[in-house]
Design brief:
The complex is a heterodimer of chains A (about 240) and B (about 260). Chain A is about 75% helix and about 0% strand. Chain A has about 240 residues and is mainly alpha-helical. Chain A has one domain. Chain A is globular, with a radius of gyration of 21 Å. In chain A, about 60% of the residues are buried. Chain B has about 260 residues and is mostly helical. Chain B folds into two domains: about 170 residues, no CATH class; about 50 residues, no CATH class. Chain B has ten helices and no strands. Chain B is elongated and about 85 Å long. The mean pLDDT of chain B is about 95. Classes of the chains: A mainly alpha (about 240), B mainly alpha (about 260). The interface between A and B is large, with 99 and 101 residues.
Chain lengths: ~240, ~260
């Protein structure tokens, strides 16, 4: 049931990111939360949503260029992390490192789906050329309403691809991650730190995606100011 | 417009705008957003051309190539309806709406991509990420609500202005100074990403591994430099995970290196 819900969320996101509305609902930050929610673990969704949003901040459709399919990757990763953590908890595992470790492992396993999604999108574009031909055909037959309506048929294939692939990725994560972590419980803290370093790198990727001439300067200024503020808070006894 | 000239009723205009949200539903390499544009403008054509043959001809001219930023395209859709009304009234030749689209799609695509896709949306993405780190999901909901309030107000405004002003929409959009604003938003976004990196590092201090804070700060700094030198994003991301895992293993084996 959760896999079906993940499929529906992924399908909706695949349509929203390009074919309909584009209101940031298919961005990793929103989608990770939604995927986590339908998989029964909002925290897991938010844990991956933040680094994935920043990592793929530059994933935008500019002209005919195709970015990675960040929506497909996000649902698979967030769903996989949530389901894997659920299996691990059911097996008696726990502790603060469990969720970040499951999230890091889900990123490692499912991030390539974002690349696969981009390839699939190329196929969709070719398929849509057939829809163009169909619209011309309908118009030649005199059915202008049918010719105009053809546009909506373009929604089906992106929906179907993500509906199938995202739950599949989540299922692989939910199976492989608990298997690995139950056999190698010592991997939990290293993977948790892996998520921290990935998150830190994602911030750099986000700043780089800003495409501003002085972005580097402002990014490092923000980083240093933030660290300085943190150090001052710790020194003042406020704690992290 | 002369007295009694055909006008598109408000209901049909609203349907056109609603349909424009599906502009890229069947994006294809040959006509790009052509199917979406034809779908969006169809209610207006139905209202203007009762004669089926004339309407078919009108739809055929909108099945030609079209590509623009999906938000900014609302202005062109509104303006094209404006021109179609003139065509229906006999004030312009049938080629006028097509020429209007061809003239505006490039410049408005550049403005839309530059402002929305590479400035406003990334900034709100970064803000949502930082807000979620600090305050959880309510900050996420609030950020998305603000973004969409801006997005929808501009999108609807573009459509209305295009419809009412026709060719003058260019001047109206130019007065918004979106490219200059975009540069400031991008810089703000970079600053927010820097603050996010500091926040991630500060929170790393809570991970039960000494040196996590330093590792996060170092990766945030070196990561930017690596990307600036052309490192591929995916490989660099995997390397970042490997750094964290490797550091934790080293700490486990040899004690804290930092």
């Amino acid at each position: 049931m959760k896999l079906l819900a993940l499929g529906l969320v992924a399908g909706f996101a695949a349509v929203e990111r390009k074919g309909f509305l584009q209101a940031m609902l298919s961005r990793p930050i929103a989608l990770g939360a939604m995927a986590g929610l339908v998989a029964g673990d909002l925290d897991a969704g938010l844990t991956v949503a933040v680094p994935l949003e920043l990592l793929w901040l530059g994933a935008v459709n500019l002209g005919a260029a195709l970015p990675v399919h960040e929506a497909l990757g996000t649902v698979a990763i967030a769903g996989g992390a949530a389901l894997a953590a659920e299996v691990l908890r059911a097996g008696g595992a726990g502790g603060p490192a469990l969720l970040p470790a499951a999230a890091a492992a889900a990123v490692v396993l499912c991030a390539p789906l974002a690349l696969l999604g981009r390839r699939a999108e190329r196929l969709v574009e070719r398929w849509n050329e057939r829809l163009y031909a169909r619209a011309e055909h309908d118009l030649a037959l005199g059915d202008d309403e049918a010719a105009a309506r053809v546009n909506l048929y373009g929604i089906a294939l992106p929906f179907a691809i993500s509906f199938l692939l995202a739950p599949l990725g989540a299922l692989v994560s939910a199976t492989a991650i608990p298997l690995f972590l139950e056999r190698v419980p010592g991997a939990l803290p290293p993977l948790a730190l892996g998520l921290v370093t990935l998150s830190a790198f994602s911030c750099a990727a986000g700043a780089k995606a800003m495409r501003a001439a002085r972005a580097k300067l402002v990014y490092f200024a923000g980083l240093l100011a933030g660290l300085g503020l943190f150090a001052a808070t710790v020194l003042a006894g406020g704690g992290p | 417009m002369k007295e009694g000239a055909p006008r598109v009723p408000p209901g049909a205009l609203a349907r056109c705008f609603g349909r424009s949200l599906f502009l890229q539903a069947a994006w294809n390499r040959r006509g790009m957003q052509n199917l979406g544009f034809a779908y969006a403008i169809f209610p207006a054509l139905s209202a203007l051309y009762a004669d089926k043959a004339v309407r078919r001809e009108a739809l055929a001219r909108h099945l030609g190539f079209f590509n623009c930023h999906p938000y900014a395209a609302a202005a062109i859709l509104g303006g094209t309806i404006h021109h179609e009304e003139k065509v229906a009234a006999g004030l312009e030749p049938p080629g006028a709406p097509v020429a209007y689209k061809a003239t505006l799609q490039g410049p408005l695509a550049a403005i839309g991509d530059g402002f929305f896709w590479t400035a406003l949306r990334p900034l709100f993405g970064a803000l949502a990420a930082v807000g979620t780190l600090l305050f959880g999901w309510p900050a996420l909901v609030l950020t998305l609500t603000i973004y969409n309030a801006i997005h929808l107000v501009l999108r609807i405004g573009f459509f209305r202005t295009g419809y009412r002003r026709g060719d003058d929409v260019v001047g109206v959009i130019a007065r918004l100074s979106l490219p200059a604003m975009a540069e400031r938003l991008r810089l703000a976004g970079a600053g927010v990403c820097g603050a996010a990196a500091a926040l991630v590092a500060a929170r790393a201090d809570q991970v039960p591994r000494s040196g996590a804070l330093y590792a996060a700060a170092l990766v945030a700094a070196l990561g930017y430099c690596a990307l600036a030198r052309g490192a591929p994003l995916f490989l660099a991301a995997y390397a970042a995970v490997a750094v964290g895992v490797g550091l934790a293993l080293l700490t486990h084996l040899f004690g804290s290196p930092l």
